Amino acid sequence: MTVKYYAILTNQGAARLANATMLGSKLNLTQMAVGDANGVLPTPDPAQTKLINQKRIAPLNLLSVDPNNQSQIIAEQIIPENEGGFWIREIGLYDDEGVLIAVANCPETYKPQLQEGSGRTQTIRMILVVTNTEAITLKSTRLWFWQPANMWMIKSQSTNSHDITRTPR
After folding, report:
1. Which of 19, 11, 10 is nearest to 126 (CA)?
2. Which part of the chain is the Phage tail fibre protein N-terminal domain (predicted)?
3. How far is it, in rounded angstroms, from Cα 78 to Cα 152?
4. How do residues 111-154 score in pLDDT, each as one tens digit?
5. Most exposed: 51, 67, 112, 129, by fewest CB within 10 Å?
């Protein structure tokens, strides 16, 4: 069976990762974007510099090395239930300079918004194979904790201070 859904480094992403590896520096992946690819399931293209039709971009919630495969990184974003009204067919991973580092396609999914009469919190996850996870800054910029009736968000402001806010439902 042919693999239908996958993530790849873009040409710029591969060059930046190679440069970070060579210089012993870090590539700072900070944002994830999702898009609808204008209604057609896209094929990831290494020459891409942006998504075909971006619908949302926001900071990553999690960026870590896959505990089951040390050559894979897992990037994750959570879309809250009050955002949506679009299809998701494409995913992009951006660095701290706004450069598209990786691009992926995904199974088509509709992200409803509450005004349509239905809402859900949706986790978008990209798993990307890289040659050197050491050259990528791995950190969590936002952590979400679920409790039965309440949602709490901890936003890391620095390594020593945290703001805890309750997100209304």
Report:
1. 10
2. 1-139
3. 13
4. 998 888 888 999 999 998 887 667 776 654 444 444 333 334 33
5. 67
CA-based R_g, the chain, Å: 16
Residue 88 CB neighbours (<10 A): 22
Backbone φ and ψ for 29, nearest 5 degrees, come out as -85, 125
Apex 37 CA angle, 39 and 8, nearest 5: 140
Return the pLDDT at 66: 86
Residue pair 33/92 in contact (Cβ under 8 Å)? The answer is yes
**pLDDT for res 71:** 85
Specify the pTM. 0.79
Q: Given this model, what pLDDT does residue 138 score?
A: 61
Pull the structure tokens for residue 128.
Answer: 């990307």
Per-residue pLDDT of 34-80, as tens digits, reads 999 999 999 999 999 999 999 999 999 999 888 898 888 999 999 99
Rounded Cα distance, 92 and 40, in Å: 16
CA distance linking residue 21 with residue 24, whole number of Å: 5
Q: Encoding tokens for residue 153?
A: 């968000």
C-alpha distance across the termini of the chain, in Å: 42
**DSSP symbol at 114:** G
- Report the SS3 class of residue 133: helix
Residue 121 has φ and ψ, to the nearest 5°, of: -85, 130
